[in-house]
Amino acid sequence: MSMFISSLFLVLLALLSSCHAQKEATIQEIRLAFNKNRVNSRQLVEFYLGEIKKLNPVLKGVLEVNPDALYEADRADRERAAKVPRSMVGLHGIPVLLKDTIATKDKLNTTAGSFALLGSIVPRDAGIVSRLRQAGAVILGKASLSEWSSFRSLSAPSGFSPRAGQGKNPYVLSATPCGSSSGPAISVASNMVAVSIGTETDGSILCPASFNSVVGIKPTVGLTSRAGVIPISPSLDTVGPICRTVSDAAYVLDTIVGFDYNDGEATKKASRYIPLGGYTQFLKPDGLKGKRIGVIRNPFFAFSNGSNLPQVFENHLQTLRREGAILIDNLEIAGLDTILNVTASGEAVATIAEFKIAINAYLKSLVTSRVRSLVDIIAFNKKFGDLEMIDEFGQEIFLAAEATNGIGDLEKAAIANMATLTRDGYLKMMVENGLDAVVTPGSNISPALAIGGFPAISVPAAYDGEGVPVGICFSGLKWSEPTLIEISYGFEQATKVRKIPTFIP
């Protein structure tokens, strides 16, 4: 009987894989098709809805589809026919999937993957959603995630939420999709949507981008509004694109950056650093030429014995040199062992205290909700743990956060320690070596970027011996997105590593 079930599963996987024989369309290619009347927004949305229907029962990357998606597509088509100015550029008519922490004032839920927030009503669109709507993008739906952005329990698996179930890596189904923005990465990797948007506190964009062979941009904290996004830590949270190409991610970044009154302090400062003409101007094939890039081998280039990855990444370093980059090899970040230990660095202490304050404020702002505080969420999980099928994972992070009492001496010391580690570590290394960026495999450098509020871009780079993707991460100092886009695009165009999902069991 088990052999019969296994055979059926393999047939299903073969069918799923065949869905990806078509060419993967970029935003530029979709816009060209629009302009030449080869396809319209309605047809594009219908295509993605069809892919979701076929693939999502296995992959579980999409949590909820917008019932008004076709209506929004029809409106985009009418505007294009009428030659409304906004319809000629950017994301107009392009379907976008949002991580289920990003509020939409429509028929979609915003729940962080939890039944506790199912049916809650938000007061308004998130700041970045307002910008997407102004650009004429089609909100296709909400993507799945690690419940509560991986901030409920240390034992909960990446990509799992009660509402969606377990998200699957479309390359190797048994491999982690990583999180917490697992659904956006799964969905764009498997062509269930054109582009998506995730959020990151520490690794939540960069890690799923790496494991799902897609491009993820973690912007400088404050460059994109967090207003209307279910929070973890206002000091660390950021919102960014997850797409199949660097160019698509740059188009999305252009749309979602900028000042937002509801996230005023952070976005007002950041808006001064948005380049005139936007980010797509930095999509230069020769973007690597003359860039000074630091290589941190210890511990990031340590791969398992027998792996093909050491040679692959050595080849990538040679490619960077060949394309004109100047590599400063064997650099080290002072205090890195402490930085990578979120307890020792102070990141855990500061974050759980900020979470309690921020989540309580978010819950109180809702028009309608069955939970109005972290205490309510904890009580809900205790009462309905069996229903959610995650009672075995516990909620120890929630309990630790509830036990905090604001930003006291302990938290202030933790915040000061993170600032010192950043100043004497990543920042000092960048400045003393005159670096434009740092290159590392995967996403393990994310704690250093999180505590500093620094940006990074993950680009598809390799597949290990089992077929699991591994990204390459280019990171830099605050507001260095233009340079990181030049470097990432130059690398992407020189290597073109990404391939379509394999759906290996």
Please tell me about this protein's structure:
With 505 residues, the chain is α/β, with parallel strands linked by helices. It has one domain (7-299, 309-342, 423-495): Amidase signature (AS) domain (Amidase signature (AS) enzymes, Alpha-Beta Complex). Helix content is 42%, strand content 12%. The chain contains 19 helices and 13 strands. It has helices at 2-18, 27-35, 41-59, 69-81, 127-135, 147-150, 182-189, 206-211, 246-256, 264-271, 309-322, 336-340, 342-345, 347-365, 374-388, 396-402, 409-432, 446-452, 481-495; strands spanning 62-65, 95-99, 138-143, 160-161, 165-166, 195-200, 215-218, 238-243, 292-295, 326-328, 437-441, 456-463, 469-475. It has an eleven-stranded mixed sheet with strand order 1-3-2-6-8-7-12-13-11-9-10, with helices on both faces. Strands 4-5 form a two-stranded antiparallel sheet. Helix 5 links the parallel strand 2 (95-99) and strand 3 (138-143). It is globular, with a radius of gyration of 22 Å. It starts with a helix and ends in a 10-residue tail after the last helix. Mean pLDDT is 94; it is low at 1-12 and 14-21.
